[in-house]
Specification:
Blueprint: H1 8-14, E1 17-26, E2 31-42, E3 45-56, E4 60-72, E5 80-93, E6 99-117, E7 121-132, E8 139-150, E9 155-165, H2 170-175, E10 182-186, E11 189-193, E12 198-208, E13 216-226
Antiparallel strand pairs: 1-2, 1-13, 2-3, 3-4, 4-5, 5-6, 6-7, 7-8, 8-9, 9-10, 9-11, 10-12, 11-12, 12-13
Length: 227
Amino acid sequence: MKKLLVIFAVLASLTASAQNFQLHRDLDRDLFTSTFEMFKMDKWGNTFTFVDFDYDADNGISQGYFEIARVLKTEKMPIGIHIEYNGGLGNFKIDEDNQGGYTINDAWIFGLNYAKGGAKSGFSTYAGYKAIKDAGKANFQITGTWYVNFFDGKMTFSGFADLWSENGDDEAIAAGSVSDELVFITEPQIWYNATENISLGSEIEISNNFAGDDFKVRPTLAVKWNF
């Protein structure tokens, strides 16, 4: 499931909390995806969470995916401690009368986070140990995000890139719980900030070995409401 973006660095430099709602039209998969994101800072670091829902004509909500991440960091700490949980579920049409279901394996990530940025540009990155449910082997994930504001803030180029391993024992591979391959996904976004609340834009999901697919490029058209 795609992971839409909050940039930790820009939010940390500009505001104590932020929320947004996005609606994307996936031009490759012919479906809509909605995303709600929230970011909140406090004296012990920050919390980020989002939930995605995919919608298609046959099943309505065909997939839901959830992430929540906590960075423990004070002003005196140059690097934060990153703790994250991922999970989700979905359904698919078998025939006119029956549907099947599946879960996206729970995963926990424990690592270190570094962010730096200002009003015009910045980045955030973390690397950590990734514990995938029922994998039977250790894994890792590296994530980077970026943003660049230009034309006096009317345009924003942002995005993220994830690289993680899906190592597993024979049982996990046979069950399809893991792919036993490296997985890569990046989602660069371009936004026109029409007003303080409304942004119009596009995203291109580029992935390899993600969600059972080989190399894929999936563009979207999107609208975002900033609370």
